[in-house]
C-alpha cells in the first residue's frame, strides 16, 4: 500500500500585497480620470497623488532608477503593490500640460529655456552607467516593452549586434539596399550603451503654468539601448507641427543622422506587427525564397493594418 502524507492537496494561492486601510479609503473617494493624450485611465487621490492599475513594471522601474541617479523631473514612485488585477502603483504625479499644446504661444526665451533644460536632462540620462555592458533591455536589463516592435516584450539582447539582428528579422545587413544599414549594422561598428527614454517627444514633456518642465512622462519603453536610439526615436515620434522644436533639439543633443536613415528604412520595410510573429534572433541567413515569403507576409500585414 502506498502511503500519502498530508491532507491538503490544493494548489497554493498566489501571494498578493495587502493594501493599507488609509490607501483603500483614499481610493474609495478618488476621482477616475483619463489621460487625453494616451487614453490611459488612473485614479486621482487628491493633490499630486495618483494610482495606476495594470501598470507596466518597465515604467515604474525606470522611474525609480532615474529618480535615484539624476535630477530629471519625473513622477515619483510612492509604493508598488502586487494585486490580482496586476501591478498597482501609487505615484506623485505633477500636474501640467503637454508641451505641444502650449509651445506655439511661448516666447523665444521660454522656448530656449525648455530646450536647454531638455539637453541637460538627456545628458544626465546618457551619463548613467549600465549594471552590465552591452545588454540591451529595460531599466533592470530584463525584457523591454516598445510599440516599435509590436505588442510583446523583446530581449534582453546580450549584444548590440544581437539587437540589430532582431531589428533586421535575422537578415544580413547586405540584404538591404540602403548603404546606411550596411554601415550602422556592421559587426565591427562600435556603439556604446546609453540609458534612453525612448519616446522623448513633446506630448511626453509636461510643463507647468510658468512654462517650466515639471515632468517627463511615458517611460514604459525606457531602458538601455544603443547610443543613437534616443535620437532616432525622438525624430520619428515628433509630429511635423513641432518641427522647430525638433530642429532645436537636434542642435543640443548628439546627432545620429546616418543611423536615423537606417532606422527609417527598417521601419518602412517591417511593420511593428511583424515583430509579433515568432522568429529566432539567431536565425541563419534566409534563402531568397524565405525572404520572398516573409516580404509577402509583411505586405499582407501592412494591407490589413494600415497603422503600420
Automatic annotation (TrEMBL):
InterPro entries (UniProt xref): AGP_Transferase (IPR051678), Aminoglycoside_PTrfase (IPR002575), Kinase-like_dom_sf (IPR011009)
Domain Aminoglycoside phosphotransferase stretches: 59-238
Coiled coil: none
Residue ranges of the region described as Disordered: 281-308
Pfam families for the chain: APH (PF01636)
Protein name per Swiss-Prot or TrEMBL: Aminoglycoside phosphotransferase domain-containing protein
UniProt organism field: Exophiala bonariae
